[in-house]
Design a protein that fits this description.
mainly alpha; two-stranded antiparallel sheet; two-stranded parallel ribbon
Length: 423
Amino acid sequence: MNRLSAGPIGSGSAASAAGQYRVCGNCRKVPRQEKRVQVSPPLTRGPSAFIPENEAAARHQCSYLINMHVDEFLKTGGIAEWLNGLEYIPQRLKNLNEINKLLAHRPWLITKEHIQKLVKTGENNWSLPELVHAVVLLAHYHALASFVFGSGINPERDPDTSNGVRLIAVNNFCVCDLANDNNIENASLTSSNFGIADSLSELEALMERMKRLQEDKEDEEASQEEMATRFEKEKKESLLVISGAFDDEIVSTDVSRYIEDPGFGYKDFARRGEEHLPTFRAQDYTWENHGFSLVNRLYSDIGHLLDEKFRMVYNLTYNTMATHEDVDTTMLRRALFNYVHCMYGIRYDDYDYGEVNQLLERSLKVYIKTVTCYPERTTKRMYDSYWRQFKHSEKVHVNLLLMEARMQAELLYALRAITRHLT
């Protein structure tokens, strides 16, 4: 959604009320700051608002996942009172709140002290196998929220409201933005109005960059110093990728009962003006050599399943790019995966981050950052703005890569903290 910026709206009595209004960047209307708006069901009939025919999830206000889990919780005999809010759940589960919050938004802040606090002796403690199990579940649903929002999956219709229409509180939003997210087609709301020819030339340019990068790699490899410099450059440039921050965050009343500290969210790993956080060198703690073995030792069943899932999604390809066939997409898939890890401060010594800038255009970077770090802010405009000639199935594959990259990043930080606790 576009940010609604404050601006002059007249003089006299109108000017005195200017602080109560925002001007919409799309339609130039002046919606009131606080109002209640009827949001109709999505206009698409399929499961996605983007593609033609919701406690872990609560951190991202993913009502689709929350409602699904509420239903499943009750079907399996869960205690209904727990659904009234966090104050109604056992203290042992409440104790997971801090690590859940950090995993969802800033996993690099997780330390061995957080682990020690959870496993310390007492009636509400967690064993290490139990904690690994919990962390895997939390990270899985954070990442799944990214997939749900990134794919525009429609919430189920609310049976408790008339015709599936409900009232939601809106702050600093315009109805046209809400409508756009519900898939009302309006060319004036798209981020750009490129024609098919422009989209095709964009595709050809991407193919040419991939070919040139492959040739350059075969001719000469960059030094370790240059590779480190390119990572730092890409990490800092990710600060400039803005995904439409809002003046005020809105938390649905249906979700707020499951959230403590709702204002806590993602902050760029490479924030300027703050103490520098050390880069997580993947070679020092990899999933293959460290994370997998720890999970497999403490919770063997899930270790193999996770490893298979990561490998399958990373290697999945139909060897196509839009209208082109027999294309090796390895370079592009690796750039997508590693860019997510870069935003989480994870660096691969053997990867040239110059490829990220060459292969991922700005609109795609905005989409990736939003889906990965602020998934609840994803809009159809963002989805439509990149790779305009690619198939929907290819964009869904992008979302699968982003989901798995995000989950692996969260697990790496949590498992490293558990390893440090053990040593």
